[in-house]
Amino acid sequence: xxxxxxxxxxxxxxxxxxxxxxxxxxxxxxxxxxxxxxxxxxxxxxxxxxxxxxxxxxxxxxxxxxxxxxxxxxxxxxxxxxxxxxxxxxxxxxxxxxxxxxxxxxxxxxxxxxxxxxxxxxxxxxxxxxxxxxxxxxxxxxxxxxxxxxxxxxxxxxxxxxxxxxxxxxxxxxxxxxxxxxxxxxxxxxxxxxxxxxxxxxxxxxxxxxxxxxxxxxxxxxxxxxxxxxxxxxxxxxxxxxxxxxxxxxxxxxxxxxxxxxxxxxxxxxxxxxxxxxxxxxxxxxxxxxxxxxxxxxxxxxxxxxxxxxxx
Amino acid sequence: xxxxxxxxxxxxxxxxxxxxxxxxxxxxxxxxxxxxxxxxxxxxxxxxxxxxxxxxxxxxxxxxxxxxxxxxxxxxxxxxxxxxxxxxxxxxxxxxxxxxxxxxxxxxxxxxxxxxxxxxxxxxxxxxxxxxxxxxxxxxxxxxxxxxxxxxxxxxxxxxxxxxxxxxxxxxxxxxxxxxxxxxxxxxxxxxxxxxxxxxxxxxxxxxxxxxxxxxxxxxxxxxxxxxxxxxxxxxxxxxxxxxxxxxxxxxxxxxxxxxxxxxxxxxxxxxxxxxxxxxxxxxxxxxxxxxxxxxxxxxxxxxxxxxxxxxxxxxxxxxxxxxxxxxxxxxxxxxxxxxxxxxxxxxxxxxxxxxxxxxxxxxxxxxxxxxxxxxxxxxxxxxxxxxxxxxxxxxxxxxxxxxxxxxxxxxxxxxxx
Lengths: 312, 418
Known about the structure:
The structure holds two protein chains of two kinds. Chain A is mainly α.
């Protein structure tokens, strides 16, 4: 009968005699994980990493399709031009302003909508449907619809205002009214998305907590702040992350509503990137702008991730 | 028959069928037509071509309803080297850029003597379509801006068509006071930030005798720029033009005039065909003259016109070139003049009997087209256009004063056109 030590000796000898690739035939969990991730990693590097690297590379070049000249290396010239470009600063500021207004705005409206949708309805589907429709509508459609709503002559908004006795506003003639119209549209469109996420979170809160609180004598408002809000925090953070990143990339709604007008007062950074690449065909400068937006989005994502990690 | 022989017979039959169908192979050409220039009438021209060339089938694609929106679409398709479009219609300001970007196929090989071929066209278009000796596109139609007016209203109040902008303002105020129609606009022009707004700015500027670019360098006259912006803003402030003129694009002007709500309109030649159409409220009530001049200046018009180009990424370049030569022929030009009121690119067609019968004012339009000024030719034209049109839009919206607008325009143009 073989002793334990003899068996170990035999096993060790056998392992060193096997080929290197046999470890893939019966892989350890770690190797298996690596192998399964490999196809996805390849796909992602093809559609994300490669274009981003190409983008950064183009941002260091002088490449304008209408000049007829081939690309030449320009170092940080595009970035230097960007810092002196007043339109860049204006569009970046517009983007930040839109983010600061529409993210909390959509959160508040979305929260209200979710709370209403959570009430016990006899038929749930009309409520869910009306919550879903703004989110399902393509952004460009929403922009065009609201552009007509806010048209100074043929629009519904001015019609209602006039019937109420006010004078109609020429919405797209002034920067601040055009901006307001755009923020309103964005809040309308995105609050349904926030509402859906928050509603999902609301439904995970057990009724027993509310019943217990009621027994203890807590009013509805107190219940909201002490039970609902704390338990909703994860959903809220998720909704905020999505909303903030897409707010930084706002393009469709201002583009279809005002094209950035009057002047450049409602143009966002994404619109300026689009203009430089698709309209002016200045790929070098457009790439530099896109790199800045990419860095901004990454920065915001990092901040949020840190916030989540801090919560444990 | 043995299996072997059966197979051989079947293969031979297949080969014969395939080669026969290849000989009768249909070429499918996809043409991008600007939606504001009567694609329905171009469709008839394509039908006539298909009748004469049974192995060619033409499909029309439209998208975007203003020049710069269409350009952005085409830019995207061409940058992606997409082969979906074979022929595309280009605004007169674009063939040079598209050639520089390598997106068009030159016509020199199929034209034979390119110089002689281009001489048949009006000189402005021969120039716009020839880059470094290569013919990069062929003219589709000519165009310039005109002043349309309500013949019936001017006759009713005993007013002659105005020769200066001041006369126009006076005429509009007189008619407005007499008609007391709240819906009647005195003057409609383009204040939206579209390509046409560049012409809006340049019309008075050129009328004062100034150039924007000379010898490839910026020759901006700030005084003239302020005066030009102020001219249009004054129309709004005095109530001659409507308050939200900054929302008005080319086809909006056309639609409002067609509905009978406008006394004077600044627009391109295509509008005439619409005004004389069955659905028009102003049929036979429309007069056309050349645009007014500023006080003490010369009348000036903006040169327009569109060109047919063949995509460098097309799979059917030869057939596409043949189609374009047909589209850019005197016969098609006459057809489009009669049926869509698109100005001819050939000098002789203006005085053709059938054309004069259908569009009587074309005979007088030829000198306007021949003296119309072209917008600045520069590889960075898209940026120049954006600067000018957003400034015009901002001034007309009341967002900037004419002085502020002119200052901004100068600064931004200097950075682009060093």
